[in-house]
User: What shape does this take?
Amino acid sequence: MDQLHREIARRRTFAIISHPDAGKTTLTEKLLLYGGAIRQAGSVKARKAAAHATSDWMEIEKQRGISVTSSAMQFSFEGYHINILDTPGHQDFSEDTYRVLVAADSAVMLLDASRGVEEQTRKLFRVCRMRGIPIFTFVNKMDRAAKDPFALMEELEQVLGIRSCPVNWPIGVDGDFQGVYHRDTRAVELYFSSDHGRTKARKTEVSIDDPALEGMLAAHYLTRLREEVELLDEAGDAFDLAAIRRGELTPMFFGSAITNFGVEPFLNRFLSYTLPPTPRMSDQGEIRPDSPDFSGFVFKIQANMNPAHRDRLAFVRVVSGVFRRDMNAWHSGQNKQIQLKAPQQFMADERAMVETAYPGDIIGLFDPGIYRLGDTLSQKPGLRFERIPVFAPEHFARVRPFDSMKRKQFLKGIEQLSNEGAIQTFTREEIGLEQSIVGVVGVLQFDVLAYRLKNEYGAELIMDSLPWRFVRWVVDSPKPLDALNLTSTTARGTDARGKPVLFFENEWSIRLAMERNPGLALDEIEPMDTFEGRT
Ligand SMILES: Nc1nc2c(ncn2[C@@H]2O[C@H](COP(=O)(O)OP(=O)(O)OP(=O)(O)O)[C@@H](O)[C@H]2O)c(=O)[nH]1
Ligand SMILES: [Mg+2]
Assistant: This one.
């Protein structure tokens, strides 16, 4: 095998998804701990403590203890080279999560053991299903009161419509979680509480058939375990790796990210079951990871990750070939060759310069303002990967700087957050005055906007919320937009690229606009090639 094939074979790229608070960031950090990328885990919600979760790097995330943006990190474990993507669970940030899923080859779906399948889990699961990626279920928070594992299996099937196959099984319930039983090795893995999960859990492993187990586990736990295992073996779905890789069966693991119980055996097995980097669709057909020319796409842009540098990074998922530092590649957004400068990877708290990267890798490129979400980079000119999904904003506000002296910083911040896809911007002409309008999918994005403008750009802002709930891009129009017959509450404007849009308060107004203006064509997301407004 040559170098490229060897590197592809050992790479794994996955996203962690779930409803808010199931423990994604905590689990991410524990995986880094087991991968040796960090020596001590900081507690996620220890607000006043010095230690914070490694992947919640934004100031606002540390304060609130929620993830508002996704983060990508690398680590190694037993020969594997792993790219892990922690995503925000809150639905207001789901656009970010969806974008990240495009860069992942599989998903780890966390369930809070006491809550089971929650609303946001359901939505994210649907997206994974659509992409056909393998989904691994980790039932977290087993250290607390938990639903019955059989009931959770039932819930996966009833609510998500996917059959499950437990790989391990929990021992001890409701605050007395002692370990897991591995169905593949017939071994019982028992843990001893450690220092609140800051370091790896101490453990011992015994075969379920070993008489010594009787002295180690309470009799009622052992009896129950043997009964449940028998039931699973008889009535449960058989382990079927091909079905797992097709995303039709989800392997199920039980554990507790906070105490580290069950984290390592999960990681071990997950890595061997999940797929190495998969191909991606482009306008020139499927691009396989082992095709020799380098290619990749931008799925995330993020500024100010490091307050000391105030720089901007474009995150690229490598799809094929070998990436080399400072190489030249064709850039779809600009339709020309550019040099890919200062590539970086993230290992826990540290950034490291990348010399070479392989398919599956996530690298951050220094961005002087030339990248856009969805851009393709490739050695072969003219290649374009599938578009990154964009959501139509549902909340709008007029924004202006609190202090007019800070207008420059204000505009810079707004432009940057718009490039990141953290907000969408529009302008609107009114009484000869140009107004900045911000659209978001979830209202929490407004909070992040205000917070980041103040903290990263030193500009406080005034926000007046607007009554619109819908924006539609004008794909075609029978007449100039100001001559259209529209309801009095419908407004005209342009998006960040100057493409014409209409804002509506309700669906009724949209219907009316269509009825009254034959030939008017509207789109929910920004179309690729639009009609350039004839206003
Ligand atoms: N008891 C218990 N608590 C846990 C466990 N894992 C995480 N938590 C706690 O659950 C809370 C949420 O954890 P996070 O890791 O921030 O959850 P998240 O899924 O990343 O949340 P968002 O990113 O905001 O969606 C924190 O207070 C954690 O300490 C666990 O295994 N057991
Ligand atoms: Mg989180």
